[in-house]
Amino acid sequence: MSKKLEEFNLIEKFFQPLTNSCEAAQNLSDDVAKISLKKDEQLIISKDLMVQDSHFLMSDGGFTIASKLLRSNLSDLASAGATPLHYLLGFSKNSKISEKFISEFAAGLKSVQDEFGLSLIGGDTVSSKQLFFSITIFGVAKKSKNLARGNAKDGDLIFVSGSIGDAYLGLQALNNKVEIADKKSLKYFLDRHFFPTPRINLGQRLLTKNISKCAIDVSDGLFADLKHICESSKLSAEIYQNKIPLSVEARKILQKNSKISAFDLSSAGDDYELIFTVEKKKSKEVEALVRELKLDLTCIGELKNSANKKFEISLFDEKNKKIKIKKYGYEH
Amino acid sequence: MSKKLEEFNLIEKFFQPLTNSCEAAQNLSDDVAKISLKKDEQLIISKDLMVQDSHFLMSDGGFTIASKLLRSNLSDLASAGATPLHYLLGFSKNSKISEKFISEFAAGLKSVQDEFGLSLIGGDTVSSKQLFFSITIFGVAKKSKNLARGNAKDGDLIFVSGSIGDAYLGLQALNNKVEIADKKSLKYFLDRHFFPTPRINLGQRLLTKNISKCAIDVSDGLFADLKHICESSKLSAEIYQNKIPLSVEARKILQKNSKISAFDLSSAGDDYELIFTVEKKKSKEVEALVRELKLDLTCIGELKNSANKKFEISLFDEKNKKIKIKKYGYEH
User: Does residue B216 sit at the A interface (CB-CB below 8 Å)?
Assistant: First the structure.
């Protein structure tokens, strides 16, 4: 009974305030949550798991771990053009976990909730030696519209939001595999690693303005996730290395450090940018989005019918010479 | 990449067949699942986690572990009167997990899906030393109706479905804490422990026929879960020990074994029966349900306004003497 009591205290103290008293949460006092939809809406759902020492370290701290968990899960909603609504939390704990950690974890969730208009509506808590956390996230989108990785067409242009590889450089810096002397740059890369920005606004506009029918978020790596589009849409991609958007900060690191290449940045993961495809005649609408969202949206190539049905990516350097892709993505 | 490839093979081989090609699953090729509802429906959602060595042993086998996971999660839907629809699976694996285990795990899910009309629509797979599994389950119910633990009223009768304590006796037998010589009895208790029957049909009828407004499933123990009703409804309960329904098999064990009491059976968990409350004038309708569902529904007492606002359970023996409840429920 004492464990159960502890569990109730945990929920009351830290998690109940995260419901924002929304009806769907049933005050977290029932075993179920309840969601109603408007007539023309569909529910968009994604579930993510994060495991200690694989996806996070306890030394990252509760605020950071919770933020990344929720932010990366929101990125799945962004790739479907959905508006965030609610989430369920699966929370594991053990005797090594402090109340401070849980309090910071809840604060991390709160900060992301406030930024994206989310509320907690339920979940489960358990004990485990190796900690793990799980989010099931819910968003809504118009029933009649569909943004999915299998919808690209022959001749579509391939766009990428923001910049690629910054999160990877953050991780490399943490692991002492690259030295980043400039403190402002270091903070930039670490923020990109720990606090990715799910491109919710972008996804919503791509969907509602009919600019794109096909998107994916970059979690495994630019090449790996573009390959998912190729395979699902049964097309091949031709992209140009020098068009892949890198941040000013990343370019500086590449100049100074011969061990890291632009290629490495595109075969790493955790960028949580969107790759999306656009009919050529709609490319002007993408330019308008760049101005509206104040977000870089860069065309890196286009999709083509595949003669050999291999649905591959051809990567070209600045001299139009084909570069072999030895590694597509990130392994956890 | 190899891990990721393995993950895709795992999904294609074992999990894709579980989608029954339903639209919501998007063929498991997208990061999101999509659910649409009819105008008068609401989505009922529950999330459960199970951790190795706490909620299951690997020696239980994949079929049994998956069955119990999905069956106990379905029980949450039953308590809300919902009709099962879909689920998301969180699946962890490590190098010790065999393909045979995963195949049996998938077969376990399949058997429950077929029995209750469910399909898999998405999820996530990760690696972890200590294994864990997570289900987010979805059902639908009429928007206008509501079965919840906080809806009981003063004077309502308290009913329990089926029998209480069988799962506990199964667990005690497994742990060699009670000897059950009769093989048929042993199988009965083990089946009740490993393969609980979520009372979906009962929950649906309580809701749609307006027989009850308040229900909970017995996962923590009869006393513990009835106490949840008391606290949420702000009422006290008066119940009678000798009315608590026990199976013929359980009564035999109690007769033979002085170490186990009827009290123990009601303070254990994992029964997955429903406790529900009914206005006195509707008790005839419960009798009709017993005949229709061929399921025992037993009145064990009633709910009363609480003078001291303590919202407690008073348990009486056959001589109307109050028995102190020293332990309410089960600790994992």
Answer: yes
CA atoms of B10 and B103, how far apart (whole Å): 10
Helices B99-116/B62-79 angle, 10° precision: 30
pTM: 0.93
What pLDDT score does B10 carry? 82
Specify the fold of A157-323: Phosphoribosyl-aminoimidazole Synthetase; Chain A, domain 2 (3.90.650)
CA distance A313 to A239: 7
CA distance B296 to B197: 13
CATH class of this structure's domain B2-142: alpha beta
Query: Are residues A219 and A77 in contact, defined by beta-carbon separation less than 8 angstroms?
Result: no
Q: Which residues of A touch B124 (CB under 8 A)?
A: 47-49, 134
Backbone angles phi and psi of B307, in degrees to 5: -70, -45
Percent share of chain B, pLDDT over 90: 85
The answer to whether A78 touches A203, Cβ cutoff 8 Å, is yes
Other beta carbons less than 10 A from residue B122's beta carbon: 25
Whether A149 and chain B come into contact, CB under 8 Å, resolves to yes
ipTM: 0.92
**Helix and strand totals (H; E) in chain B:** 10, 12
Q: Which of A134, A217, A219 sits opposite B49 (nearest CB)?
A: A134
Chain A residue with the nearest C-alpha to that of B217: A31
B1 Cα to chain A: minimum distance (Å): 6
Give B181→chain A minimum CA distance, Å.
Answer: 31
Return the HEC string of A89-106: EEEEECCCCCHHHHHHHH
Which is it for strands B322-323 and B313-316: parallel, antiparallel or unpaired?
Answer: antiparallel
Contacts with B, A 228-267, CB within 8 Å: 228, 232
Name the residue among A1, A122, A332 with its Cβ closest to that of B329: A1
Backbone phi, psi, residue B79, to 5°? -65, -20
CB contact under 8 Å between B122 and A45, yes or no, is yes
Specify which of A260-264, B32-36, B74-78, B266-270 reaches the highest per-range mean pLDDT.
Answer: B74-78
Give yes or no for A177 touching B (CB within 8 A). Answer: no
Q: What share of chain A is helix, strand, coil (3-state, %, to 5)?
A: 40, 25, 35
Cβ contact B329–A47 (<8 Å): no
Beta carbons of B130 and B52 less than 8 angstroms apart = yes
- The shortest C-alpha distance from A168 to chain B (Å) reads 16
H-state helical runs in B146-282: 166-174, 183-194, 200-208, 222-233, 248-256, 262-266
pLDDT digits (tens, 9 = 90+) for B41-56: 999 999 999 999 999 9
- Chain A to chain B Cβ contacts (< 8 Å): 191
- Domain ranges (residues) in chain A: 2-142, 157-323
Average pLDDT score, chain B: 93
